Amino acid sequence: MTRTTNGPQDEPPRRSRLLRTTTVAGAVVPLCLAGWLGWQAVADHGRDGTAPARAAEAAAPPSGSPAGSSPGAPPASPSAPLPASADAPNGTPDPTAPGTTAPGSASGAASSTASATALAGRTVLLDPGHNPGNAAHTTEINRQVDIGNARKECDTTGTSTNAGYSEAEFTLDVSRRARAILTARGATVVLVQDGDQSWGPCIDARAKAGTTAHADAAVSVHGDGGPPGGSGFHVIMPAKVVAGKADNAAIVAPSNRLGLLLRDSFRTVTGEPYADYIASQGLDTRSDLGGLNLSTVPKVFIECGNMRNSSDAKRMTDPQWRQQAAQGIADALTTFLTTR
Ligand code: ZN
Prior knowledge:
alpha/beta, Aminopeptidase, 2 domains, 6-stranded mixed β-sheet, two-stranded antiparallel ribbon, 13% strand, binds zinc ion
């Protein structure tokens, strides 16, 4: 649905990383570079917010405040799948899949031992990137908001696979699956949006949601819209930003700890490699994301894969893989909240 012409790329690459990649890539440089230049033109337009302003109707705020506390989530076992997804006819995880037991890793230990009360009294904020309704509300999501050190679009349409599976669908599904796992471990889980708002919310509201929820930790779930030749996942941690309304100094260190745990857990559980077209060893640090600049609780982003890459797209459209992705996220949060 949302195509690259609308600039769905919301987490653009660092140029230095790209240049390193193209240098190494040797023979494929011309093709990759040509593709990337087109992609970058889109990316520069769409950092954390996209879609050109074309609609003329007046903006209206999203309905209500962040919603989705889910005390009534399925009473599944800690590693049980989420069976309710309409697009997951086969919700049973492959017992041979990497990470369902995840031996030998700290996050895997959390997966296999977390009890139904392991996270009792703890609150987790999950932030499903974008909103399936954003594409129909370009005026609203193009409104500029203050992220402390800059102003940028309220929200973006997000990217999609070539076949049209949208990032917004992906992020909501993975977040719901992670919520089910975390709830089964005793956590209170709040979703910034749960398919219950017509658009958004804006990135500043997504950050504020963590404060409002008194969250102990937050993860923003995304799928990247990178160059078709690039694949893999990466985690984005906050750089220290003290500017204007932003002051995230207090969350930088704990967010870095969460980011490392998430990087390790996600790779262990999903088998997805680190991104080969952006970041370094699956990690990036940025100061241009409102959701991190304005957060007052430990928070990271994860780009679970590159939806424009055919191999990643195949995985991301597989409900069983999405269950693994959710498991990786939930395990990292569990370890973060139960260890120091
Ligand atoms: Zn995104």
